[in-house]
Write a structure and sequence with these properties.
By secondary structure, this protein is mainly alpha-helical. The protein has helices at about 1-25, 30-35, 55-70, 70-75, 80-95, 100-135, 140-155, 160-170, 185-220, 230-245, 245-255.
């Protein structure tokens, strides 16, 4: 009964507060009330001043579409793929389960990608973004110009056999310059090459940790300790070896230098 009366009182106070608010607004001067009116918003889409360029609405739609493929752009057309795959191989070799966590590995891979790709991004900004901002070229011309530095970077890192394979599948016998190479050929060839190199590096990283696991398992077997998992004993030794050899520095330096 008491709780029911309290709910009624709260509703009464709420109604009284709303009523006082309405009365306070109604007694305001007309000039003040006029300032509270929400301004009208007029949205209109006009044609472009140039016949060869797109309208602003179409340009905005194209930009939003490009941004929606940001994840694919980062993972498929930059150095991110090789770095993140190697990092996950390292964590599996150490056997630390979720340490370092995925957020840390992805964040480190992302900033290393920015560091490695900075010369390419600077060239894109110089030859495509700035001319487009200053109206020296249209949007489609800027996109075509911006793709050239990316294709040059990918072709440098792509093995010949992968590039030739996808060119044959696309019915291309040869290309004169990198500019004539389409992205639908360059990107898959680049990704395949990056995965191959990442798995090779991961194999080289995995071997020392596997040797430590085998040594610890042999020692435990010789001592007759069957119930103790070898991974539990080998994990501190693997971490110790990785720290003493300054593994993070060596791994990151090798990854960065592998793109030069």
């Amino acid at each position: 009964m008491g709780s029911f009366i309290e709910r009624i009182k709260r509703k009464q106070w709420l109604a009284l507060s709303i009523l006082l608010l309405v009365i306070g607004v109604s007694i305001l001067p007309a000039e003040v009330q006029a300032q509270q009116v929400i301004p009208q918003v007029d949205i209109s889409v006009g044609g472009s001043s140039e016949e060869d360029d797109f309208s602003s609405a179409i340009q905005a739609l194209i930009i939003v579409t490009i941004l929606s493929f940001g994840t694919a752009f980062i993972t498929m057309m930059t150095s991110f793929t090789r770095i993140i795959v190697v990092f996950f191989f390292l964590r599996m070799g150490l056997g630390t389960q979720q340490s370092p966590p995925n957020q840390v590995l992805v964040g480190l891979a992302l900033f290393l990608t920015i560091f490695i790709m900075k010369p390419t991004f600077d060239e894109i900004n110089e030859v495509a973004i700035q001319p487009y901002i200053t109206d020296e070229m249209t949007l489609m011309e800027a996109l075509a110009t911006a793709s050239l530095p990316l294709k040059e970077f990918m072709v440098r890192q792509t093995q010949d056999q992968d590039l030739i394979y996808f060119m044959d599948m696309a019915g291309m016998s040869s290309i004169g310059t990198v500019e004539t190479l389409p992205l639908y050929v360059a990107v898959p060839a680049y990704v395949i090459s990056e995965l191959r190199i990442a798995f090779q590096i991961g194999f080289m990283i995995y071997i020392p940790f596997m040797v430590i696991d085998l040594v610890v398992a042999s020692i435990l077997l010789a001592m007759g300790i069957m119930f103790l998992p070898p991974v539990m004993i080998s994990l501190p030794f693997k971490i110790l070896v990785f720290v003493l050899t300054d593994g993070w520095y060596l791994l990151v330096r090798s990854l960065v230098e592998s793109f030069n």
